[in-house]
Amino acid sequence: MKYICAATFLSLLLAPSVWAAYDDGLTAYKTKDYPAAVREWRPLADDGNVKAQYMLGRVYFQFYQDYRKAVKWYRKAAEQGHAAAQYSLSSMYRDGRGVPRNHALAMKWLRMAAQRGDPTAQNRLGFMYYFGRGVPIIYVEAIKWHRKAAEQGNALSQHSLGSMYRNGHPQRVRGLFIRHDNFPAPLSVIAKEGRQ
Fold first, then answer.
1. pLDDT: which is higher, 167 or 26
2. In the list 44, 106, 150, 174, which could disulfide-bond 93, CB 3.0-4.6 Å?
3. Cα–Cα dist 183/191, whole Å
4. Residues in CB range of 86: below 8 A, 6 or more apart
5. Does an H or E element contain 181, and which?
6. In the beta sheet, which residues pair with residue 173?
């Protein structure tokens, strides 16, 4: 019991330094000092910090273009339930960057990200169901995922829903009429508020 209390006390003392290191990495990232960001985040990521793992994936993908390292860090964060990392890992499998192209794994991670509420993943899933990209065309699913993303302010999904409404296709989807009241907000309100 004495050791558990000591370990808990030490972890509470170290917690602020962990967040300070993460914030220092974020500051370096924002000022485009990527080597410093990696130096700050790497120890945190090695210790399982999901945010540091995701951000390392971004740095390796976007700036170093080391796709294998990006996949490594995205996967670590994705396996801990980080939705943006799941979406990013899905894209890596879809495009064959750092890993062999694998549609099944791309869909697995995309669905996980969408189910965790990532609006970008929800938009992509809606797009895939609407156009039948890698999945059957299922308009009800397309509308469901676009609506979820649109309700979070995803402009692409708001546009897609607006287009479905304007064009009237599919006018009737297995008993679901596409009507104005099926949308999260009138398109005129979305445009006026400048939501994105």
1. 26
2. 106
3. 14
4. 78, 109, 110, 112, 113, 116, 118, 121
5. none
6. 176
